[in-house]
Specification:
Bound molecules: biotin
Number of strands: 14
Structural class: alpha+beta
CATH class of the largest domain: Alpha Beta
Shape: globular
Strand content: 25-35%
Order of helices and strands: EHEEEEHEEEEHHHHEEEEE
Radius of gyration: 17 Å
Length: about 240
């Protein structure tokens, strides 16, 4: 693993994408000053001060796209949850890859692929973590959010947190690429806060409502619709 620190950048994902040729496999681009962060579904990821983490993991597993790559966000999600647990909190996963503590978002993941002439040049796993964000700043966000500092009452050392997280990520990464979602299914399910609840999932401009029944062996959400119809969802956002 290589750590690549940038003093200030608009978006670590954008930087990683633009410099994909020069960044080697398993490089982590990170900053504490991200001025124009991007979120999923064209949303923004607000800058919440320099005491938080804004980072992108650059991965170059192979030039052909494999199904397991789309599960990498779920792998990172489990690793994030396990790292939060080291601080004595109880994180819950909101499918596919949000982490919440006490029903408030604490981190977000944005995965992007760089494909050129039909070949996969790299995968970028971007993540933002609210470590020491103050309540006044979080209150300005458009959804309930929290930080590890608020949840523990302690000042969190961001360098130590990042090192713990990345050590966990790379410990099992190669095995995960070989095995796929099944390697983490149990760990994922243990923390899945949405199962056996009635939920609505937004998939582009469509919304499906029903009972969140299960997670399949490849990480998809099995939803039983109001009409008793089964939906296997690979992408979407729980509303
Ligand atoms: C989301 O929940 O919508 C995903 C947010 C991902 C934010 C991170 S911060 C570091 C990296 N660079 C970006 O521009 N976005 C990701």
């Amino acid at each position: 693993m290589n750590l690549f620190y940038i003093e200030e950048v608009d978006s670590t994902n954008k930087y990683a994408k633009e410099h994909i040729q020069d960044l080697s496999d398993k490089t982590v681009v990170y900053t504490f000053n991200q001025t124009s962060g991007r979120g999923r579904l064209d949303r923004k990821w607000a800058y919440l001060g320099k005491d938080n983490i804004y980072a992108s993991i650059v991965l170059k597993p192979s030039e052909d796209m494999r199904e397991v790559y789309s599960n990498l966000t779920q792998y990172l999600c489990v690793v994030l949850a396990q790292t939060f647990e080291e601080y004595g909190v109880i994180p819950k996963i909101k499918w596919p890859n949000d982490i919440q503590i006490n029903s408030k978002k604490i981190s977000g993941i944005l995965a992007e692929g760089v494909i050129e002439q039909g070949k996969l040049k790299g995968l970028i796993l971007g993540f933002g973590i609210n470590l020491n964000t103050k309540k006044e700043l979080l209150d300005k966000i458009d959804q309930p959010a929290t930080s590890l500092n608020i949840e523990t009452g302690k000042i969190i050392d961001k360098e130590i947190f990042l090192k713990k997280l990345l050590a966990r990520f790379f410990l099992m990464y190669d095995k995960f690429i070989e095995t796929g979602f099944l390697l983490i299914k149990e760990e994922y399910l243990k923390r899945a806060g949405f199962l056996n609840k009635n939920i609505s999932v937004k998939i582009f401009d469509k919304t499906i409502s029903g009972l969140a029944k299960d997670i399949t062996d490849n990480g998809a959400l099995r939803l039983i619709g109001k009409d008793n119809q089964e939906h296997i969802l690979l992408i979407g956002d729980i509303l």
